[in-house]
Amino acid sequence: MADLPLPVSRPIALPQVPRWVSFRHSVALAANPIPVLDGYLSTYGDTVATYLGGIQPTLLTRDPGLIQHVLQKNHRNYPKSALSRGLGRFLGQGLLTSEGSYWLQQRRLIQPGFHRQRIAGLTELMLGVIDESLAPLQAQAARQGGAVEADVPELMTALTFRIMARSVFSTSMSEAELQRLAALLTALQAFYVRTVRQPYLKLWLNASGQYRRHDALSAEMRELLRGYVRQRRQAARRPGYAPPNDLLQMLLDARYEDTGEPMSEEQVLDEAAILLVAGHETSANALSWLWLLLARHPQEVARLRADMQAVLGGRAPQLADLAQLPYALQLIQETMRLYPPAWIMDRVALANDEYQGVPLPKGTLVSAYIYGLHHSPRLWSEPEAFRPERFGKDQLREQAAPAYLPFGAGPRLCIGNQFALTEMQLVLLEVLRRFEVEPVDTGHPGLQPLITLRPRTSFRLRLRLR
Ligand code: HEM
User: Fold this and answer.
1) Distance 299 CA to ligand 1 centre (A)
2) Cβ neighbours of residue 221 closer than 8 Å, sequence gap 6 or more
């Protein structure tokens, strides 16, 4: 049969959430946007024009083709939005917050530092931190007749922050400094989220001095980091000094291809701050959700334990073992499908564009709704069910556009994805090697989508010595 002529594409009028509806939802949106956004998409379709907080127009989408178009295929037309870049005010111009040719130059410079081999060099350090964090719990459990209750999000946040801080700065940080840095980063992120979620508060936040107060916290954070960078530089002048194999050293040793020059101190601070932020909360949240799910799915835990027994016996995992334990990765992948830490990504159109007839005029803010993508009934059967076998070797199917993007897509794909996957697998295996995990709190903690998707309330698990 001869091919029929293709219909001439005509602009498609997108469904629009009426402004008054989005305005009416602005309080609910500030509290938890996910049910509001899910409601819009199930009412109007996979792509819808709406207003954030009743003010900021945006194109919200869970269409995998449009998300791929924006993040990957036509990425040059879609830099991050001012919303994403706003974080730069408090954290500086690192990889996550910079744009254009400066970003590209930095990405090229830093990318080799995240090569598999480099990550392999950090796994000993990760295992050391995991051991340090779990040993006190083992001791406490032993004193208490064999079990201890742990606040999971708190434990995972402390653990991943420690892993990240050590991966960047090795052991140069004292416990008090570690705590202060974590508190500063938490306060800065919380304030930034408020400015995005409640744009109508901007004047008040300015007038009440809150911007100024957070600028001061940001300066404090920077000075703390500056101290470590200077210490390292001074140490390097000592004869016979052997620099540690950490990410700070990687940043200090990196040289621009064209000039052979290293980064300035300010640039190193920018990148170090971004690594700390981008690298810990995401993994902490993924791990917290993982434990919530595993406490409720003992069969899946039993299956992983059987694999661990076959591959590890009772010993600690090494990097090379991970390839023999694919189910550990599947559990993590399915967790990040259900609870993607980076649950939404913003881009803005530089020039007029269109996608399959949908006009994307210059200035359009596109919200790539990854949570919606990962829960789309069009793309996943029983999307709310925890089924790690979806990520089994035999199950992976070719899709026209990716339905699973926990690390983003295109040139701005997460630079730390291998780091994160390795870290999370090691945490999973090390906790299970030492403890049985049992639920304590019943009920779901709820969703708190800030920059990353956190559990709304804390929850505990009983860790019983094995
Ligand atoms: C479960 C853990 C993680 C998740 C889900 C995650 C997710 C993401 C996503 C979705 C992006 C792209 C954002 C966008 O395009 O707008 C991103 C970027 C980034 N991530 Fe991660 N990340 C994780 C862990 C890490 C770790 C451990 C590090 C560092 C060691 C890291 C460092 C970065 C950096 C520097 C960027 C910016 C890259 C660029 O724009 O060139 N991430 N991450």
Assistant:
1) 31
2) 181, 184, 185, 188, 273
Domain extents in the chain: 19-465
Which pLDDT does position 56 carry in this prediction? 76
The Å distance, Cα 412 to ligand 1 centre, comes to 8
29-69 pLDDT tens trace = 777 889 999 999 999 999 999 987 667 788 999 999 999 99
Non-local (6+) Cβ contacts of 420 within 8 A are 279, 282, 283, 286, 407, 414
Predicted pLDDT at 400: 67
| CA 103 / ligand 1 centre spacing (Å) | 14
Indicate which atom in ligand 1 lies nearest the CA of residue 345.
16
What is the pairing mode between strands 56-61 and 365-369?
parallel
Ranges of residues in the chain whose predicted pLDDT is under 70: 1-12, 53-54, 396-400
Q: Are 415 and 429 in contact (CB under 8 A)?
A: no
Q: Look at residue 28 in the predicted model and tell me its pLDDT.
A: 81
Q: What pLDDT is recorded for position 1?
A: 35
What is residue 399's predicted lDDT score, i.e. its pLDDT?
66
Q: Ligand 1 mean position to 408 CA, how many Å?
A: 8
Q: In a mutational test of the pocket of ligand 1, which residue from 119, 282, 422 has the highest number of ligand atoms less than 8 Å from its CB?
A: 282
Q: Which CATH architecture has domain 19-465?
A: Orthogonal Bundle (1.10)
Which residue in 409, 315, 303 sits closest to 74, CA to CA? 409
Q: What's the angle, vertex CA 411, arms to CA 405 and CA 412, rounded to 5?
A: 65
Query: Which amino acid does the sequence have at 39?
Result: G
Site residues for ligand 1, CB cut-off 6 Å: 80, 95-96, 107, 274-275, 278-279, 282-283, 286, 341-342, 345, 406-408, 412, 414-416, 419-420
How many A from CA of 413 to the centre of ligand 1? 7
